[in-house]
Amino acid sequence: MTYDRVREVDQAIADALVGERARQNDTLAMIASENHVSEAVMEAQSSELTNKYAEGYPGERYYGGCEFADEVEQLAIDRARELWGADHVNVQPHSGSQANMGVYLGVLEPGDKILSLDLTHGGHLSHGHPANFAGQVYEVEQYEVDAETGYVDYEGLAEQAEAYDPDIIVSGYSAYPREVDFERIQETADAVGAYHLADIAHITGLVAAGVHESPVGVADFVTGSTHKTIRAGRGGIIMCDEEYADDIDNAVFPGSQGGPLMHNVAGKAVGFGEALEPEFEEYAAQTVANAKALGERLKEHGLDLVSDGTDNHLVLVDLRPSHPDTTGKAVEEGLEAAGVVLNANTVPGETRSAFNPSGIRAGTPALTTRGFDEDDCREVADLIYQVVEAPGDDDVVAEVSERVDELADEYPLYE
Ligand SMILES: *Cc1c(COP(=O)(O)O)cnc(C)c1O
After folding, report:
1. Which fold has domain 280-410?
2. Which residues carry the site feature described as Plays an important role in substrate specificity (predicted)?
């Protein structure tokens, strides 16, 4: 895409779009929640469907002229049902946070009780943080991971649930490197008469490909984003049993959204179709293999990983044991200057702050899309380590940057 038509009317935006494409081509995207969609998904997202109002659901719209919108949304739904084996699917949430909002609105009353993982332990804002609507409308208590092991403390969670008597327990996380035992959490929810929402935003693709245990058919509700490990463009999705279908659909529209972003629903349909191809399973397996290789090499360099490793697409490094005077922010900034884009992250038992935390989070979904294998990821670990050792050193940054340029050239992305 050359953005010539944008340029004809808007030089500044055309420059920014071309700049962003070059940035993605030239840097290594290691923010664990990011990926690169295909040009087919982007083309669908930029279609005329952006013009179309399609309030309602396929076959029951409030507006005319929806025959193609219906076809697109139904295909997105059918493909999602096949990918995740879900009974009922709503593909309209504008984002993962909107998907969670849909579930809360669908089955909770204001003042009901949410039990969710603490944000600094890997949870998400939309799980009831005071700055999010969920924290303002509902009562929230949070559970933690075991500070020693970095794993969810399932037994502690069961005891806490017993004492707190929540209406909903939320599982699924933003910075958790280990497989989640959804069945165990469902048992806990059942024992206290709570719903269980499994938010698989980060691992939608891993679950679809069968490389992570699936909560579909286990948890009462499953929400996800469609732009992280599944490459279907920005958006959200909700899955549930047929018995909750109306509650969920009404909570999304008209409960919390107006017309669906039909161009994005088209992107989801195309991305889900791509994920149904056999190559997607290889992609997901390679993403995990790459994260394991990255993590092992970081450990060989003496860095400390939360939970001592990973089962999924991300690693979380706690810098405190090996580099007590180095902050996650300093490493993030040094790496960004060298063309490796990841984020500083809180770690369990954080002793600094959310703005200046003690860890870094690194994911492999986007690098794997480019074609990186385990050897490449071990080399990326070496590059990360060089910067961890000397985050403010211009010579180190220049050296790492040179190698990043070569790797980026070796694995081209967008034309
Ligand atoms: C990324 C994420 C979401 C969704 O975020 P959006 O930016 O709203 O799409 C929801 N839950 C978790 C656990 C996440 O990591």
Report:
1. Aspartate Aminotransferase, domain 1 (3.90.1150)
2. 227
